[in-house]
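Researcher: Next sequence.
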Amino acid sequence: MKRYWSNSGHWFWAVGRFCEAAVWLGFRRSANRFRRLAESAYIHSRVAPVIVLLAAGCSVGPDYRPPKTATPAQWATAGVNTNTADIARWWQSFNDPVLDSLISRAVQTNHDVRIAIARVREAKALRSGALADFLPTIAAAGSYKKQRQSENAATSSRLEYESYQAGLDATWEIDIFGGQRRTLEAATAAYQSILESEHAVLVALAAEVARNYVQVRGTQRRLEIARHSIATQHEALAIMEQRFQNGLTSELDVAQARALLAATEAQLPALETARELAMHRIDVLLARPPGALREELQTPAPLPVTPPTVPVGLPSELLRRRPDVRQSERDLASATAQVGMQTAELWPKLVLIGTGGFSSLSGGDLFTAGSRYWSAGPKVTWRLLEWPQVRAKIRAQTAQQEQALARYEKTVLGAFEEAENALVAYTQEQERHRKLADSVAASRRALAIATDLYAQGLIEYLNVLDARRALDQAEDQLAQSEQTVVSNLVFLYKALGGGWEIKQ
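Model: Next structure:
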């Protein structure tokens, strides 16, 4: 804090520079006299920092202390890799250049990111304003006035005259009880909170781009499976119709084959809709109109490959990494400082006031020694009769502080819940994926056996259709599970608070 107070002498130095401007205008002699006054004031101003330092230890209101939060030693989900998580750019672990490019472009162009950056600039400017409150306020003024007095009310024989005036007015509030310091604390914490909100936007943006990219690739894979099944079923239907014409099978078998084909074809519109919606969402996230990235994304490509292991770190690391938790903690710090701001209103305020300049009835005599005037002294204000209102505001702000503490505790619990849920969803879906892979292998074997038996005339074609339907369903479920595994990993990285460091 000392460096702000030590700059007080520079204001008087600025007065000297003002006088040099006066020399340039031709008022050399008078300006030199004014500079000597300013230099004298500069010498006396060295006493001001001493006064401030003596009062620096007095800041009314509660001092902020970060809340103590109990964190579990281990995750509730068994088998979690608790090695330190390196998730600053977690999407790079998928080794997908297209995904890397999409997220990089989104960070540069996304509207929410631009809004968040503007809010950070706004908060920084407000904090700078709080810093400026520590410095004296100096205003230069000049005036010219021509006036005529009433003949019946004049106190002299001169009824018309001109008036010239030029001078400086200065005020400086001495922060005895820490109101300004609490204001600066609140503004600093608010700025830091807004900065964390920008980080939260980056975390959400990276996850949203990745989730929709996975949706695109997943639906493309499911469309491939559905189209392959449709092609196979067309071939089977043609064979069945030929056998029916030759009297080797019944019309029932043909109708059942046609029903299965139509049911499979009905899946295509829904899958294409899901793919298009995901593409459009990526377009908007990159601040592009829907359809702008169609050429880049329409060619089918494999799903991003999940890494073999996913270190998630310890639960205690979560609070230090998640932007929403850190933002909530800064909100609590700001609310605490604002209690001190209101408490300072119960105490007197000391303002040093000074004014000086030149005043004359003749423009030619304005900057002469006889035209000088000045005044200086302290001013004390104390809102004694407003204490009930001030105390009511203190109680209201204290209640807001309690709300901020409750929100922080709620945010912490929500962070742990979200992370635990993401861990459970990811690990359980991996297990489900393994079982579905076994199901696909078994269904393929069953279809092969059913086809052979039907060719030998040992079973009805309905059994073959059932085996085909079971394989189609198993392959589609496996493709969905592959997509869900990657999506759940994206949600896990988001729950762990990864991704905001991309701007650093």
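Model: The domain at 71-144+175-346+389-503 is CATH 1.20.1600.10 (Outer membrane efflux proteins (OEP)). The radius of gyration is 38 Å.
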